[in-house]
Write a structure and sequence with these properties.
Elements (H helix, E strand, L loop, with lengths): L4 E3 L5 H7 L4 E4 L2 E7 L12 H18 L7 E9 L1 H11 L1 H4 L6 E7 L7 E8 L6
Parallel strand pairs: 4-5
Antiparallel strand pairs: 1-2, 2-3, 3-6, 4-6
Helix pairs in contact: 2-3
Length: about 130
């Protein structure tokens, strides 16, 4: 098996080891980031939807920063939401704080029935700084 170029944000290695996945992997000029949720350091959900979305972006930005990226480098976003009819507008009221200016990344939003106690999850792909054209 080929070695993966894994990116770890500071202070969360135990959480990733416990669940046996990598927070992000560099490959062919891109950073593939595992779905990020609004989890505390112990993996538990941050209480409240708005606080959970803020924590999600804090966690996502930590992974991006560990690879030398920012959200401006993100080219594709997949959003998973529990009950999107109920929470989409509340989530999207917070998103602009971290989303940046146009042009925006591509977006796919998916309604799901289970996120292990979380309301929303963002999975992203970013262009690595050294691979920008």
């Amino acid at each position: 098996m080929a070695s993966r170029d894994v990116v770890f944000p500071s202070g969360r290695q135990d959480l990733y080891a416990r669940y046996r996945y990598s927070p992000a992997v560099r490959s062919n000029g891109f950073l593939f980031v595992s779905g990020q949720v609004g989890s505390r350091e112990d993996g538990s959900p941050e209480p409240g939807l708005e606080a959970q979305v803020h924590k999600l972006f804090e966690n996502l930005n930590a992974v991006l920063a560990a690879a030398g990226c920012t959200f401006d480098d993100v080219v594709d976003v997949t959003v998973f939401m529990i009950d999107p009819d109920r929470i989409l507008e509340r989530v999207w009221a917070i998103v602009p704080e971290d989303w940046g200016q146009a042009p925006h990344p591509t977006l796919t939003a998916v309604g799901v029935t289970w996120l292990s106690g979380f309301d929303v999850e963002f999975k992203v792909v970013a262009k690595l700084p050294e691979a920008r054209a």
